[in-house]
Specification:
The complex is a heterodimer.
Chain A (H helix, E strand, L loop, with lengths): L18 H20 L2 H26 L8 H16 L5 H23 L4 H21 L16 E2 L2 E2 L3 H23 L2 H11 L1 H6 L4 H27 L9 H14 L4 H17 L7 H15 L11
Antiparallel strand pairs in A: 1-2
Chain B lengths: L3 E10 L2 E11 L4 E5 L6 H8 L7 E6 L2 E2 L5 H6 L2 E3 L12 H7 L9 H5 L3 H21 L14 H13 L5 E5 L7 H18 L2 E5 L3 H7 L2 E6 L2 E6 L1 H6 L1 H8 L4
Parallel strand pairs in B: 3-8, 3-9, 6-7, 7-8
Antiparallel strand pairs in B: 1-2, 1-4, 4-5, 9-10
Helix pairs in contact in B: 3-5, 3-6, 5-6
Classes of the chains: A mainly alpha, B alpha/beta.
Amino acid sequence: MIDEVRTMPTAVQPQLMRWSVVLPGLAALAAALVLPQFANGYVTEVATTALLYVVLCLGLNIVVGYAGLLDLGYAAFFAVGAYTSGILTAEFGFNFWLTIPVAMAAACVAGIIIGAPTLRLRSDYLAIVTLGFGEIVRIIARNLDITGGASGLIGIERPEIFGFRLMQVQHFYYAFLVLALLTAFVCLSVERSRMGRAWFYVRYDEDAAAGIGINRVTAKLQAYMMGAVIASVAGCLYAAKMTAISPESFTFNQSLLILLGVVLGGIGRIPGVVLGAVLVALLPEVLRGAGTYRPLVTAVALLAIMLFRPNGLWPDKRV
Amino acid sequence: MALLEVRDLRLSFGGLKVLHDISFSVEKGAINSLIGPNGAGKTSLFNCLTGFYKPKGGSISLGGRPITGLPPHRITALGLARTFQNIRLFKEMTVLENAMSGQHCRSRHGIMSAILHLPAQRREEEAIRATAMRWLDFVGIEQHAHRRAGGLSYGDQRRLELARALASTPELILLDEPAAGLNEREKLDLVHLIRRIRDETGVTVLLIEHDMGLVMQLSEKIVVFDYGQKIADGPPEAVRTDPRVIEAYLGTEE
């Protein structure tokens, strides 16, 4: 019956890439590629942490920014990835690269266990449940033997690729850079696809989305699980870089920092989230000179941003 | 056999009975209306038909298939689309993205094929976009495709809601007060557009409307509600002179 409708040539495609984003993006990428050649160990270390936050914030952005679900326990999935990879390499002698799919599967299972019952409810409930989940994972890690208890897991093997072992901070810097680029590519691809649009429909008007044929529970669950998988991969690489992990790396504070990065830069939009993630990693280092006043200065800076740029530093035009 | 069959439908919220044993049917290819004073239960009935409310009893079938109690997205997939009384667009997204949402239940590619940029996924995206554009053209707002939906004029927002519902390729479309807030000129256009929906695409239309001129012009059959009960059901001429309908609208003489 559609065929009877008058047809018209497909309209002009909207410009997918704007030069205002592409050019600074390319410049940032070029700078990121050569950074370790010029920077000292300290700067490279901080930059590696920044890249870790870029991956985590992009992952959480799928949950919070695209699907509009407030997740206060995102670090739990980061922990699931780190511990899965850590235990498998340190205790069972697995090859690091093989632990990644296992960690992804573990994150999926954890995502379903938490998400399936709670995503049927409105998002306020999800915030409370995820907050609890974050703490439960940390406390489990603290009390099990296999996770090394409170002192943590040590002796995690360094990954090897084509006979080359990742050892120095520069190596991990590049590994995280590849992961960050891969994550950004995945986010961009999904953002512009059918499922990506479904997340936005659910975020903007759940009832209208359901009325137009979108299964809101499935859509939310997929966003939640995709976020979980990205955090778990970041966790694997984090464990390999640190060679030792403890429950204290995965506290509620960690979840808040990741959320802060997403909100700070501009929720829902990749360039904004990357900027926010870098700021979250850099602020404590830049403000080192403030000494004991550091938390105060950070708080004032954040309040100022929220007052003057309530949609983030580089906001999503859609909001 | 009728396209939509409603049998003894009952709905209540706590002790409040909203719908009492409602039965009526809509023939395939018809334009029918649902009228009644405010609070008569018209929108509640729409919400039952589209799965937003779970009825306490009775049955609803669409094209012979039972749809009673199914979730909204399943009902849309089975061919029943709706618009909302107070326009519910995705205001922050583009007009085209809004229209594309209708095609969600008619397409299937997921996250993995999007990440891998599979050729089949690209083709499906193109098809979704083309279908959405066709419906924007049908309702006459294709020139606004890349504008923000919330920035459209009120009349165009109503048109977009229609295009979005039609993009789900329904068999039956429910319109909840489509003429609310429109001026006389826009109402004329709407009458024309609703006729075209039925005549050119074969989609059956059931609408709730307060504008009696519009209802009388368009409908082959009118179902009248008052206090959650069906008080009349028939062609416009019969309904217009029905004493119970006149009473519901104007009150009794005593």
